[in-house]
């Protein structure tokens, strides 16, 4: 955004974004760069059109699928925004693309003119602010990308299995692979065939307190999963986004933002040991 917007610039963004991006747009950019953002319901096309300010609006910024409701980590195997006419695509490579939860990296994909301008010696945001990828990290990622397709298929297969079984158990599950998800058919129409609906699902516990109590109970009483936020790891990870990756959002903004058999058996044991007061 720093490369596309100058002082006085304007961004129209989805109200459901990763917490760090929301904080950057709400607090940091207005204070330091005089770049403002209008947040909208990205599914309401009229609201998006009405938010655009002639001359000033330089960027329409949104995530697919949105975070924290579910999520930015589909990877290009599941969804390819460039094929859907996105001009610039930003990938988090720390998640599923990495697959090992051991690097911090990202990728910007777009026109050569934009990428070259970002690396300009005198005015390039990448060149002057320094977010250049470590050579060792780049090498490690290059060795993991060839099997990304295989990994994503398995992630998505297990997530779908968990979501289906959890729903049958009576848990409130949010997963775009389930037909009762409000945007199931939308994602199905856009996603690359054969890769499923993503490797992340949400169990709705209605409050951060209940969610955190449940996670700690599963982890400490039944040794199910790990409590961590670096998605795409080869172990089952759990996180309450409201008190972690989306903790920058206030209560109103949060409201707007709206398996293998052995592992499933472990999950079932964790559920059975969870007291009614926690559920």
Descriptive labels:
279 residues, three-stranded parallel sheet, globular, 9 strands, single chain, 11% strand, Aspartate Aminotransferase, domain 1, alpha/beta
Structural commentary:
With 279 residues, the chain is an alpha/beta fold. Helices cover 39% and strands 11% of the residues. It has a three-stranded parallel beta sheet, with helices on both faces. Strand 1, helix 1 (19-33) and strand 2 form a beta-alpha-beta unit. Helix 9 (208-222) packs across helix 11. The protein is globular, with a radius of gyration of 20 Å.
Report a brief summary of the structure.
By secondary structure, the protein is α/β, with parallel strands linked by helices. The chain is 39% helix and 11% strand.
Order of helices and strands: EHEHEHEEHHHHEHEHEEHH
Predict the CATH topology of the domain at 146-272.
Aspartate Aminotransferase, domain 1
Rg from Cα = 20 Å
Q: List segments where confidence is low: pLDDT < 50 over at least 5 consecutive residues.
A: none
What oligomeric arrangement do these chains adopt? Answer: single chain
Largest beta-sheet details: 3 strands, parallel
**Strand coverage percent:** 5-15%
Overall pLDDT score:
84
Question: Which architecture of the domain at 146-272 per CATH?
Answer: Alpha-Beta Complex
> How many angstroms does the end-to-end distance come to?
42 Å
Strand order of the largest sheet: 2-1-3
CATH superfamily of the domain at 146-272: Aspartate Aminotransferase, domain 1
Strand elements, count = 9
Helix and strand composition category = alpha/beta
CATH class of the domain at 146-272: Alpha Beta
State the share of residues found in helices, binned by percent: 25-40%
Number of DSSP helices? 11
How would you sum up the global shape?
A: globular
